Amino acid sequence: MTTTTLTREPDPIAAPAAPVYKVTGPRVVRSEWAKLWSLRSTWTTLAIALLLTVVFGAISAASWSPTGTGDGPGSGDNAVALALGGMNLTMLAFGVLGALLTAGEYATGMIRSTMAAVPKRLPVLWSKAGLYSIVALVSGFAAAVVSFLIGQGILSGESIQLSLSDPGVLRSLLGGGLYLAMIGVIGVSLGALLRSTAGAISSLVAMMMLLPVLLGLLPSGFSDAVGKFLPSNAGDSMYALTQDADRLSSGAGTAVLAGWTVLLLGLAAYRLKRTDV
Question: What is the rounded average pLDDT of the residues 166-182?
């Protein structure tokens, strides 16, 4: 008895198998980079934030008076303080955009597709926080330098006029950019932690603006001792040209705000890893 074995010839018109792409760190970063710049809110918020820095700095410089009677939006006895007079508003804009980057995905449901593509989850959070911090640092520093240079043109010949080569000026301007970068990461962390755009923005405003006011209602000894460690006050010391006795040094302020940033980012990572999206 003879057994015949049939061999199936390959179909010449069959479609080739789809390539299998491995999830890698660089690919996650490229994906998050594309999502960052595809949002209209990214362009709008960054433009508004940078405009606020420059406009408020120019108004502060223009309203400065040697007699101390200027009533511009910024206050201070040096050109750096005037140039960064709008930093509190700029900070909110950067923080709000950070919250939108993460909480917005939960609001639209895109987070499910994102986590299905990246099952380990945490690389998504690291990529969002890292990319946005770089964008905030570069754009914030650039805006601070432009605001400072415009202010120096307005203050030409005045006693408080400074140049970029003067001691501490570049350090203060860079500190302003680093401050905005950390606030941006805090916004990203709050968005991932609370998973609500309204909740993240409300928490950011409460932490940066409401908490210092409430602490000021407590006895002065306690508020003075604790207040310097709040995120807002620690951030202020990062870009201050001169240090007051009741304010942290630039290095200490950077360390304190970095601690707040790492804490919130760690809580966001824990929830992202442990709970369902």
Answer: 93
- In angstroms, rounded to a whole number, what is the distance separating the alpha carbons of residues 223 and 235? 17
Structure tokens at 236: 């202020």
Per-residue pLDDT of 78-106, as tens digits, reads 888 888 988 988 999 999 999 999 999 99
Question: Helix (H, G, I), strand (E, B), or coil: what is residue 234?
Answer: helix
Helical (H) or strand (E) element with 233 = helix 231-238
Residue 109 neighbours by CB distance under 10 Å: 9
The rounded distance, in Å, linking the Cα atoms of 127 and 132 is 8
Q: What's the mean pLDDT in 246-264?
A: 93
The set of residues, in sequence order, having a beta carbon less than 8 Å from that of 192 and lying 6+ positions away, is 102, 103, 125, 128, 268, 269, 271, 272
- pTM recorded for the entire structure: 0.87
Residue 210 is given by DSSP the state I
> What pLDDT, in 10s, does the model give residues 35-46?
999 988 899 999
CA 112 vs. chain centroid, Å, equals: 24
Secondary element (H or E) of residue 221: helix 220-227
